Protein 1
Amino acid sequence: MFDVYITRAGKYLPNEPVSNDDMEGILGLINETTSKARRIVLRNNGITNRYYAVDKQGNITHNNAQLTHNAIKELYDEDFTKNDVELLSCGTASPDNLFPSHAAMVHGLMDNRPIELNASSGVCCAGMNALKYGFLSVRSGNTKNAVCTGSERSATWMLANKFNNEIINLKSLEEQPVIAFKKEFLRWMLSDGAGALLLEDKPRGEISLKIEWMESYSYAHEYEACMYAGGDKLEDGSLKPWQDYDAEEWLKQSIFSVKQDVKLLDEHVMRLGSLSTKNALDKHGVNPADVDYLLPHVSSNFFGGKLYQALLANGVDIPEEKWFLNLSRVGNVGAASIYLMVEELMNSGKLKKGEKLLLVVPESGRFTYSIAYLTVC
């Protein structure tokens, strides 16, 4: 078994940062009406800037594969080129196509040579699942290196024109032409971007991050879906998939929109996240006091204080001055968020050899959690 190190980190955030006041101008007005929910959601999530792969004129500028490839290119130099990559492992919740896989589409842009591919689906944990695949490959000696990515292109899912047919349908039924909060909520939460990490079996440069371990926990056997797309939830909590709807219903009911059961989220996401973190630390005999930096992927600052209290309730006391967050500056980028945090901290000049980093990523899709423990080398 080989040690595994994150030796380089790259990112790509498209176009200029988008302020809260500029969001609706880019995403558009649903039913030509200013959103009543926007200010409430933004006040709670604390995000002040985010990035969209859509310019201010409404033109789409990048697809997901292009965002990911641009982040990967940040890993290259004369000592490590595209032809040195042995494994590409990509995670996203918003691939450009149902198939070929997201990893295959990214590899097509790399224009290098035959390599091993892995594509991880899901929501926020898709990026961590991609990282774990690369970690296990290098650790086992299957490959000497792996490029792992997390990326999202969510803005195009949230454009107002995606909801036009549902509004027309509601009007024809003489119902109030208002999109359900479970659909509109995420219009003000999600953004675009990509991060990439190079994993190798030896440290490189001034700073590397040794991956000590990674753990994942799913609670899908206990709880129904909380965040979903490409289907709709029935009264019994099950999901009816898009293939089972007539084609005209896809538009009339915005079946492909991203939806969030906010009540279910608030009830379970922090409690299960703190329990998973506790279990992972106990399994590996890690004292929370030894953690120098906690990098929690929280979708909203609203959950920051709740997460701290939930961790305390499980005996995990990591003071908030040890937390590293960039949510307000880059937005909630789903599977890419943890990559963007690692990249920013790794390249900040703040890290000192021997320090410990704890990564905690929740996924509200059906409540999955990924935790990783790193040592600065």
Protein 2
Amino acid sequence: MFSDQGPSLRELAVQALSSVERGYDLLAPKFDRTPFRTPDGILDATADALRPLGPFGRGLDVCCGTGAGMQVLGSLCRERVAGVDFSAGMLAQAQKAHPDAELVRADVRSLSLSEEFDLAVTFGALGHVLPSERPAVFAGVHRALRPGGLFAFPIGAPPPLTSAWYWALLGFDAVMRVRNAVWRPPFVMYYRTCPVSTVRDDLSAAGFTVTTTPLTSLGHRDNGAPRYRLILARKTPDPT
């Protein structure tokens, strides 16, 4: 799962016993050589699904990390793209990869940007946000978008109960809950806290109109359902 240039077991252990911010500061130089980085296939499928809905003006990568999602924005947006993250280490790596991007260090749970962007995306970040914090994140993205702006992100279908992945993810989340109960500072990283139904409800409560579209290029489950869907949350357009 990790390349020879990726983090060592000791480095991962130190990261896991740190706060989310400090952990990602430590991991940042090697993050793109870990399985935690969003695969190019998901980025490409997202870009393909969004392209017919554009072109877009300014784009924002929410919890941008090392900037993988800015590849998507760069292919879709006619104006400058930006990324926001609270890890200085991750932002430093993103700046190297995207020297022309505008990068902002901020906590997305209290995002203060106002009607500056036409498209916002996020990849693999919602597991670092507790369900109780998600409404504040979505409200901040809603403020950051211009009227008619779009917030988009992929969500994978939950593995079936009979799948080894189901039990692996369940076990991982259980270990993280125990870790956070006995160790401070907490490290928020869960895989089973973002079911589509509750995410839709939170987006709707923040003022978005929500639809989804299947990312068919990423395959289907045995029952024919897509493995991934793209959440499309639209801010109400200005009636004028």
Protein 3
Amino acid sequence: MYRFLLALLLSSSTLLAQQQTSVDAVTFAKGIQQPGIQVFDVRTAGEFNTGHLPDALQADYTKKTEFNERVQYLNKTKPVYVYCLSGGRSSAAARWMRENGFQQVVELEGGINAWKQAGEPLTGVSEKKPQMSVATYEKAIQQKGWVLTDVGATWCPPCRQMEPVLEKFLRENKQVTLVKVDGGNDVELMKAIDAKGLPTFILYKDGKEVWRKQGVVELRVLTEALQR
């Protein structure tokens, strides 16, 4: 009987912990140290660039198309720790995620404001850097042979998913030169080359565009593009 009651108590405690969906900054900070955790910033790109949590991914919750496209690249079976500026957007985003199959979503009470007040550190505070010019880009792609442009960002979930695919592609195809365009900074260049989403891949042969794809691309598709 004693063992039964103890097991019931432990089970209830575990269930309560699992149901705890909103935590303070100190608890949140400890939580994101666990292996396999996904940290998700649902503020705007501009807010993100003023400082964010370590290793965070980003999607603007107020831009429904962007949010819905990027959130699909998160793993629904692994915990997601979500935050915004003060808690409103992250609460709405977390509710949507739970309703759409995410098994464990934890919100930061008070958002970044509470995080700062607790003395927790931010990373990625962007110093304004010059954008890549169209002339610089044109010079990079105007060469004999193959050039692959990768328009992406480290905080973009599908871009993050593409990293190992690109690494393998480049290892297997050493004749291809990679040109990276910063999707969080080189906005004028993105307009010039008509890159409307992240990631966007553009393949050039002898300076001429021969193939383009927006979104996640399989290694097989990248390799087949070289046959053009």
